[in-house]
Amino acid sequence: MPERSGKTTIVDVARAAGTSVSSASVALGGQPGVSEKTRAHVLETAKRLGYQPDQRASRLRRRRSRLLGVTFAANQHFHAEVIENLYRSAEREGYDLLLTATTESRSARKAVESLLSDRCETLILISPDIDEPELERLAQSAAVVTIGSHLRAPGVDSLHADDRQGVADVVDHLVELGHRDIAYVDGGRSGEAVARREAYVESMRARGLHRHVRVIDGNPTEESGAEAATRILESGDATPSAVFAHNDMIAFGLLLTLRSRGVAVPGDMSVVGYDDTRLAALTTVQMTSVSQDAAQLATAAVGRAIERAEKAPPAREIVSPARLVVRATTGPPRPRLDE
């Protein structure tokens, strides 16, 4: 290598190591966020180049960032409402948020890595699409709080609504109206989706409706709700008198498709969502849904995140009440000819 003038900088180290500047910084600072192989390579490169860190910059890096990193799904309305409330709660405590989204092409792992490289003091994961072993591995390198997830891992705070009670309240509401054929549109593979699906099956069986349990595959999008409505109407099976969806977005897709096909809601079929987003409360929608209280969850999450950053207390599971909000999309079933 030709001799160069001037002091070797972290940019020089990153370029020689073939990494980004942020990855080089994480590796040299001994912070989580890069593999051990990458860390060793960066350290060896820095030594070879004679890199000496700027002490003033090092002192600045050691100062508290007062940043809470947040991952969320870009296509979820409820996540947006949680984030709005997270900002309010964080600002009151003198903290700021750093957001990173997950999409169909950007995994939760990738989103988390970007937050770790930016020195966030605690990670807040909103309904993360990961499994428990991966969550446990993440908690070994960062303080973690989850919102809306039923996954548990050592050292991770879990905050979620009482989905079991929320689902049971929906089934009770529909049964009291006279419904028996109550179908459920699933929300995918996440821990949250598994918990709600299992609660639906348990609630139906507890009311003696074993024969009427019907779970329709889906994912947490409006398109999935539209597809579920089409399958229900074209399957040739007995049409349910009520459909309960994993979230409001699925329920909205159901509602629009049913109405476009001439199905009266709730006259011919009742529809229930979950999350009680602004979408459900629109005058033109007025959908029965279950409220998780985004503000309460956000406030509790920020409190736990700051505690974990400052004191590292034992992890907790905090369960907030779920509340059924009855609106115009549920009503008594229409009498059938065979009854």
UniProtKB/TrEMBL annotation:
Residues 8-62 form the HTH lacI-type domain. It holds the Pfam family LacI. This is LacI family DNA-binding transcriptional regulator. Keywords: DNA-binding, Transcription, Transcription regulation. GO terms for molecular function: DNA binding. Coiled coil: none annotated. The lineage of its organism: Bacteria, Bacillati, Actinomycetota, Actinomycetes, Pseudonocardiales. It comes from the Bacteria. The keyword Transcription regulation applies. It comes from Saccharopolyspora griseoalba.
